[in-house]
Design brief:
By secondary structure, the protein is of the alpha+beta class. Among the domains are: 189 residues, no CATH class; 71 residues. 36% of the residues lie in helices and 25% in strands. It is built from 21 helices and 22 strands. The chain has a 9-stranded mixed β-sheet. α20 packs antiparallel against α21. It starts with a strand and ends with a helix.
Length: 655
């Protein structure tokens, strides 16, 4: 029976013929164009002869789609439209050595089909088919899977104490290659071509990856957007037996008006197809069960299901490991040490190469953005005490919480938390554990690298007093100037600073956000609208290799400056800028001159009354030398904005 209903975005069903009428949207605001909806509503009618792809499906699914009125979600058919459009364009792209969209539907053909491409290449007769698939299926076709690998360490505490630690790694095996659907389809088409006198030397699947280029695709080992798979030749008898058996099953189901056999594990993707993608699952007992299980799994848990968390891409370290004899120790360096931690070793190497190409092998500056507006989440800072690789005590300088009662030894107990953990008086740098160097001030910066592949957070751990003060001050400054500090591109750098501790002066390389940008430019970034939906950051990960070094705490903080107007702030910023060379000074001079020129042209365009005057100004801009590219872009936007206003004004006057 035919398709009956569309499922609207709000879950309500509507007869698709009603929806396709002009003004027929029940929500009075369409989710897509009528032409798109008309295309997704087209189904191949049942002609009495099954198709090749129909028989590759489970018999239950094929039977129900013929006999039941079912509903579809236009949203879930988006990639079907992509494939249909691609096939339509390919029909007009053949040459004298190729056949496209060859149909097997003559009277003596019991099982119909449409082959996408049959062409000759370097003497080889190639049969190919086009597919659009997700990275999960492509990874299976490539033979990629994940498995647990021992890290060589064991859990030292908790319920899993003594157990070996493992991590997921990506592996590829020829035995895990899974292309069975494609192999059956192409081999059936091969037999049909050979029956008609067209020999086939090679079979191929050209697959477009729906989510190609994304972090999740690369983590599965899928690094390209298009793959051209070789398809193995199957024995003719095996292929024909499979399709003949499936054809008889479907005919029997239609004759008796029912079918009791479930789709196999392969056909149902271990139930995933039933739960999420089968459009007739509601009519199948097994499909109903899988759907109900999925609904139960998807039920929201208050306080849990509303939490979203960004994935962690890796860590940015501030030092390296050194070895003296058999002892390893951390050593601070003056650059950032990039440590990607995705499941794929190949992906990690790609990220390292990309960062090296952007910033150099040992980057001292990197461009960052912060995903959330809350400083306490983006850069939490605590006094922390660890032992045996686990957190024992965490405090804010006033109150601390110990994870076990025994860890409160020597501290003043002042109460309990709601979870029953003991609260103690936090003495900060006067704490006996701090003096014994068992507890230290620690900050965890979580940021995005907008110029680097991979959507997720990078974690930077620091125990530097000066780094913490610098970052807090810079972020507060950006917020005061722009109204926010999140989703604004900033430059994080390692800055050399001589610090005196116990009477000894030593060089350290503290974290600092480079404020060497004009105030006007910084405020322009704030005009970019940040994302409306912000995700929670991943849990902070503790690693013994993270370097925390202590500096002298006898640092006099400057009082907050008095509020100044914008011109005074700009002047102060200019005076504070470090001048490394005469070339920097010359560039700043040219940049300021470019701003003045661009501002002058902008004012002239605003005063223009006709398009002719506006074009004259535009011609003058083209002939002006020394304008920076960002100022040209600004003037281009001004030109289009003003020309639109003049056109609107002219039309109004004529009316």
């Amino acid at each position: 029976m035919p398709l009956k209903n569309f499922i609207c975005p709000d879950g309500v069903e509507i007869p698709y013929q009603e929806c396709l009428k002009e003004g027929g949207c029940r929500r009075h605001e369409r989710c897509a164009t009528r032409s798109y909806l008309r295309l997704v509503s087209k189904e191949r009618p049942w002609t009495g002869r099954p198709s090749t792809t129909q028989l590759i499906q489970g018999t239950m699914q094929a039977f129900l789609k013929i006999t039941k009125d079912y509903s579809i979600s236009p949203d879930q058919r988006a990639f079907m439209v992509h494939g249909t459009k691609g096939h339509a364009n390919l029909e007009a792209s053949d040459d004298e050595l190729s056949l496209l969209e060859e149909k097997f539907d003559d009277a003596d053909t019991e099982i119909t089909g449409i082959a996408d491409v049959y062409e000759e290449e370097s003497g080889n007769r190639i049969l190919a088919d086009y597919k659009t698939s997700g990275s999960y299926k492509v990874a299976k076709a490539l033979g990629f899977t994940t498995e647990e690998e021992e890290t060589g360490e064991v859990y030292k505490s908790g319920k899993r104490k003594g157990e070996k630690k493992t991590r997921k790694i990506l592996v590829r095996r020829d035995d895990d290659i899974d292309r069975w659907e494609w192999e059956l389809q192409l081999n059936k088409y091969r037999i049909e071509f050979e029956k008609r006198g067209y020999p086939v030397d090679e079979m191929r699947i050209q697959c477009c990856v729906r989510d190609g280029g994304t972090f999740i695709a690369r983590s599965r080992g899928v690094f390209r957007n298009v793959y051209y798979f070789k398809i193995a030749k199957m024995p003719d008898e095996e292929v024909l037996t499979y399709f003949d058996t499936k054809k008889k099953c479907l005919e029997q189901a239609l004759k008796q008006g029912k079918w009791s056999g479930w789709c196999s594990k392969k056909e149902s993707w271990d139930g995933l197809k039933c739960a999420k993608y089968c459009e007739v699952a509601e009519f199948c007992p097994l499909g109903k069960m899988y759907k109900q299980e999925r609904e139960v799994e998807d039920m929201a848990i208050k306080g849990v299901s509303d939490i979203r968390r960004l994935p962690r891409v890796g860590k940015i370290r501030l030092g390296i490991k050194k070895k003296k004899g058999n002892v390893e120790y951390p050593m601070e360096v003056d650059y950032f040490v990039i440590d990607p931690q995705t499941p794929s070793a190949e992906e990690n190497e790609l990220i390292k190469t990309e960062i090296s190409n952007l910033y150099g092998a040992n980057p001292k500056q990197i461009k960052v953005m912060f995903p959330l507006p809350d400083l306490d989440i983006v850069f939490p800072q605590w006094w922390k005490r660890y032992g045996s690789g686990a957190l024992r005590c965490k405090g804010d300088g006033d109150t601390a919480v110990v994870t076990q009662a025994e860890f409160a030894t020597g501290l003043e107990i002042i109460g309990k938390t709601e979870e029953g953990l003991k609260k103690v008086k936090c003495l900060g740098k006067e704490c006996p554990y701090v003096k014994e160097k068992k507890c230290a001030m620690r900050g965890t910066l979580q940021c995005l690298l907008p110029e680097v592949r991979g959507s997720g957070v990078w974690q930077i751990n620091t125990g530097s007093f000066n780094s913490i003060i610098n970052l807090n001050s810079c972020l507060e400054y950006v917020k005061s100037v722009c109204g926010r500090f999140h989703m604004i591109p900033l430059v994080l750098e390692r800055r050399e600073q001589t610090i005196t501790h116990d009477g000894k002066a030593r060089k350290h390389y503290v974290l600092h956000l480079n404020m060497d940008v004009p105030l006007k430019d910084l405020q322009q970034y704030a005009l970019i609208k940040p994302e409306q939906i912000m995700l929670e950051l991943p849990e902070i990960e503790i690693d013994k290799e993270d370097i925390y070094y202590q500096e002298n705490t006898e640092v006099n903080a400057l009082p907050a400056p008095e509020k100044k107007d914008e011109l005074e702030e700009q002047k102060d910023l200019e005076e504070q800028k470090p001048r490394s060379s005469s070339a920097d000074k010359e560039r700043d001079k040219d940049f300021n001159k470019s701003i003045e020129t661009a501002t002058k042209f902008s004012d002239e365009m605003k005063e223009a009354k006709t398009l002719g005057e506006l074009k004259t100004i535009a011609q003058a801009i083209k002939q002006t030398k020394g304008l920076f590219s960002e100022h040209k872009d600004w003037l281009r936007d001004e030109f289009y904005s003003n020309s639109k206003q003049i056109k609107t004004s002219t039309k109004t006057s004529q009316t």
